[in-house]
Design goal:
single chain; alpha/beta; Rossmann fold; four-stranded parallel beta sheet; 16% strand; globular
Length: 331
C-alpha cells in the first residue's frame, strides 16, 4: 500500500543493540569530573542514603574536594582517544556492528556522562530501530549497575509516544562463553609475564555489605565467577573487592588490604578485574598504578596487572555470542 503524500517520513524497521557501560567525565579536569560525579553520586541506587541527608554532604563536601583528586587520577590514564573506558566501548560497538552486519544497528552509551542513554536511544529510534536489545556491560548483576541502566532506559521510554520493543541482556557471571574468554585472556597474559605469580587475584568492584543482606546477588555472583575460573585454569584464584568509599562496611576482603598482606609475605601477584568489561580508572589507576605502589611499599617485588577483556578477540567473540543468543527470534 502506498503511504499518503502527507505522511511523515518513517525509517524502515531494523534491530538495534545498545551497549551500556558506567560512564566517564568528558575531560580529565575538575569541572568535568564534578559534573560526572554529581550525576553518578546522585543516583539513588548508587548511594542508598535519604537524599535530604546525602545531598548536603555531596554538594558541600564531596563535590568541592574529590573532583580535583579524581581529575589527577584520570590524567594518568587518559589517552589520545579520550577516556580508556569510552574509547574501548566505542571499539567494542564498532566490532560488534561489523560482526552482526547491516541488518542490526549497534551503538553505545554511558549510564552517566556522554553519550547519554536518552540521546542515543532517540538516535536509534530515528534510524528505524523498533526492537532494541539493551546490553549492560556488567557480567555480575548489581542494583547499582545493571538495575540503574534499566531505570534510565525506562525513564526515557516514559517520555515517548512511540516506544520500541525491548529486551535486556541478563547478567552472565557463570556463562561458559564468559568464563572461557576470561580463561583464554588470562592464560595469554600469564604466559607473557617474566615470572610465575604465586597468587592470581581477582579484584571486583566493591559494594556496601548491606547490599548483600538486602538481597543483591552481586557478591555471590562474583564468588561464583572466581570459582568457575579457578576450575577452568586449574589453579586457585583469590577474590577481593576494591573501591571502598565512605565509612560503611563494604564487602571483604578489601583489595588494598590483600595487596598489603601479599607484599609483606613476599608473594608475587598477578591481579585482574573480571567484573569490568573494559579497562577504566578503577583498573588502570587504582589497580595497575596505586595497587602496585601499595604492594611494593609493603615489601613486594613482583607484580603484574592483566588487562580486561576489552576489545580483544576472546572478549568480542563472547559478546557476539551473548548478543546473538538474546536476539534469537528477532535477528
Amino acid at each position: 500500500m502506498t503511504a499518503p503524500t502527507d505522511h511523515p517520513p518513517v525509517a524502515p524497521p531494523r534491530l538495534g543493540v545498545l551497549l551500556v557501560n558506567l560512564g566517564t567525565p568528558d575531560a580529565p579536569d575538575a569541572p568535568s569530573v564534578r559534573r560526572y560525579l554529581a550525576e553518578f553520586l546522585s543516583d539513588r541506587r548508587v548511594v542508598e542514603i535519604p537524599q535530604l541527608l546525602w545531598q548536603p554532604i555531596l554538594r558541600g563536601l564531596i563535590l568541592t574536594t574529590r573532583p580535583k583528586k579524581s581529575a589527577h587520577a584520570y590524567r594518568q590514564v587518559w589517552t589520545d582517544e579520550g577516556s580508556p573506558l569510552a574509547a574501548i566501548t566505542r571499539r567494542q560497538a564498532a566490532a560488534l556492528q561489523t560482526a552482526l552486519g547491516p541488518d542490526v544497528l549497534v551503538d553505545h552509551a554511558m549510564r552517566y556522562g556522554n553519550p547519554a542513554i536518552a540521546a542515543t536511544l532517540d538516535a536509534m529510534l530515528a534510524a528505524g530501530c523498533r526492537r532494541i536489545l539493551i546490553t549492560p556491560l556488567y557480567p555480575q548483576y548489581c542494583a547499582a549497575t545493571t538495575a540503574t541502566v534499566v531505570d534510565a532506559v525506562n525513564s526515557h521510554l516514559a517520555t515517548l509516544r512511540w516506544q520500541p520493543a525491548l529486551r535486556v541482556l541478563p547478567p552472565y557471571p557463570d556463562d561458559p562463553a564468559y568464563i572461557g574468554a576470561l580463561e583464554t585472556t588470562l592464560e595469554a597474559g600469564l604466559a607473557a609475564l617474566d615470572f610465575a605469580p604465586d597468587v592470581l587475584l581477582a579484584s571486583f568492584h566493591g559494594m556496601p555489605e548491606r547490599t548483600l543482606h538486602l538481597g543483591d546477588p552481586y557478591h555471590c555472583q562474583c564468588r561464583k565467577t572466581a570459582r568457575l575460573l579457578s576450575e577452568a585454569l586449574g589453579r586457585p584464584v583469590e577474590t577481593a573487592f576494591q573501591s571502598r568509599f565512605g565509612r560503611a562496611k563494604w564487602l571483604e576482603p578489601a583489595t588494598d588490604t590483600v595487596l598489603t598482606r601479599l607484599g609483606r609475605e613476599g608473594k608475587s601477584v598477578a591481579i585482574f578485574a573480571p567484573g569490568f568489561a573494559a579497562d577504566c580508572l578503577e583498573t588502570l589507576e587504582e589497580l595497575a598504578i596505586r595497587g602496585k605502589e601499595r604492594f611494593e611499599s609493603a615489601g613486594g617485588t613482583r607484580f603484574a596487572y592483566i588487562p580486561c577483556l576489552n576489545d580483544g578477540a576472546p572478549g568480542l567473540a563472547m559478546l557476539e555470542s551473548l548478543v546473538r543468543r538474546e536476539l534469537a527470534g528477532w535477528l
